[in-house]
Prior knowledge:
Layout: H1 2-23, H2 29-53, H3 57-60, H4 63-86, H5 91-102, H6 106-117, H7 122-148, H8 156-168, H9 171-185, H10 191-201, H11 204-215, H12 225-252, H13 260-270, H14 278-283, H15 288-313
Amino acid sequence: MATILGITFPIYAAIVIGYWLVRARCLSPSDMRLLGNFVLNIALPALLFKALATRDFAQVFQQGYVLAYLGGGVATIIVVYLWFTLKRIDPARRALAVMGSSCPNSGFVGFPIMLLAFPDIAGIVLALNILVENIILIPICLVLIDFAKGNTGVGLGARLGAILLGMLKRPMIIGLLAGLAVSLFGVPVPGPVLGLTSMLADSAAALSLIAIGGALVGLPLRGNKSLAAQIAIGKLVVHPALVALAAAILSMMGLAGMPDDLHIAVILSAAMPMFGIYVVLAQEQGLEGAASIAMLAATSGAFFTLNALMLWLI
């Protein structure tokens, strides 16, 4: 247990520090947004580039990991969608629940945990997670949100194309694709470039956790608590359970053989709380209260669920 707490305690201590810094007015919410933007647009892209560009492509692309993470993520979307359809929840809240249950915070929370638990593969895990989330899972959820708004004038193919084009313009995806290209073609990375990306990448973990903690201050905590609780359970329990099931099924079929550390990492990745812009996306539909409660519940609850999961897996 001490080993597990050695991984999770520093993560949550940094989140608490970020929360306290804003509560004590040492830093402002706008400062947290600046930190978050730096991590999202500079530190994480540099990290992804370095993690991929310095490895052989065969080490980078782990088919079993991608299939398990993708299969479990899509299964989560389907299960949560059907659950809230059966409960006759309106399309806007249903789309919110699907996104909250299936889109983890791989960059700001997942990577720091992987860095402590599996330092040798943390960058690869982040890259594979970002690839699946941004190319498949998040676009599906954005389409559901779009349909919930009643925007049916644009065809599904055109809407998905616009979403994917927008994803490709993000610095994280650019860094990821650039790193993949360098790895695939074996292009040598100059020492000064590698030194710069290493320096920027090293700042990602701590700053991301401080930003997450600070972002929790002042969330509008008035909303549908029952809906929020179900979303948090979907994210912390249903998603990792379905990824574990997908990994087991694929393994039995001989399609997803993975080393033990990657097998543990794919389940832990799904067990992270929802991504940081969740509340921002919910604001567009006036559902920021429920989204805020769900995010706070998932972020705090993950301390216990991640400890229990790691105690079982590691």
